[in-house]
């Protein structure tokens, strides 16, 4: 499978009183990783939104393993865990500078029309995305 990588320098504002990254900020980083994966596949989520299609999170799961602190660099790894032409589940690992796992997680998404939230089938509306997602899952097998 294709694994996309994005590095983030931990900013002071992302930490809590314990001096570690506040848990909700990891969700933002997961979104950055997901956007990077889409970009690495040659597409633009912003363009999809301009077409009137959005991709809401319908489920999210995270497990925190190690803290990250201000000034450290986090590495977000993102891949397509499962995809069926309609629903996509992205997998994530956030690594510490020592390459230890700080977080493992996943998020599930569907695509819907922005004006009415009616689901669309990705493989029909965006056949080029569909093929790229299928290929990304198979890469490295």
Automatic annotation (TrEMBL):
InterPro entries per the UniProt record, alphabetical: 4-hydroxybenzoyl-CoA_TE, HotDog_dom_sf, YbgC/YbaW
Pfam family, one: 4HBT_2
Single GO MF annotation: hydrolase activity
EC number: 3.1.2.-
Top enzyme class: hydrolase
Entry keyword set: Hydrolase
PANTHER family, alphabetized: 4-HYDROXYBENZOYL-COA THIOESTERASE FAMILY MEMBER (PTHR31793), NOVEL THIOESTERASE SUPERFAMILY DOMAIN AND SAPOSIN A-TYPE DOMAIN CONTAINING PROTEIN (0610012H03RIK) (PTHR31793:SF27)
Similarity comment: Belongs to the 4-hydroxybenzoyl-CoA thioesterase family.
Protein name: Acyl-CoA thioester hydrolase
Originating organism: Sutcliffiella tianshenii
């Amino acid at each position: 499978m294709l694994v996309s990588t994005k590095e983030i320098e931990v900013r002071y504002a992302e930490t809590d009183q314990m001096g570690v990254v506040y848990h909700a900020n990891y969700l933002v980083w997961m979104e950055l990783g997901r956007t990077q994966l889409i970009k690495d596949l040659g597409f633009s989520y912003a363009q999809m939104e301009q077409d009137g299609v959005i991709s809401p999170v319908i489920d999210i799961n995270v497990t925190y393993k190690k803290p990250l602190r201000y000034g450290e660099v986090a590495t977000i790894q993102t891949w397509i865990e499962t995809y069926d032409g309609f629903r996509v589940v992205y997998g994530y690992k956030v690594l510490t500078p020592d390459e230890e796992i700080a977080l493992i997680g996943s998020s599930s998404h569907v695509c819907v029309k922005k004006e009415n939230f009616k689901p669309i089938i990705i493989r029909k509306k965006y056949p080029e995305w569909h093929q790229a997602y299928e290929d990304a899952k198979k890469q490295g097998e």
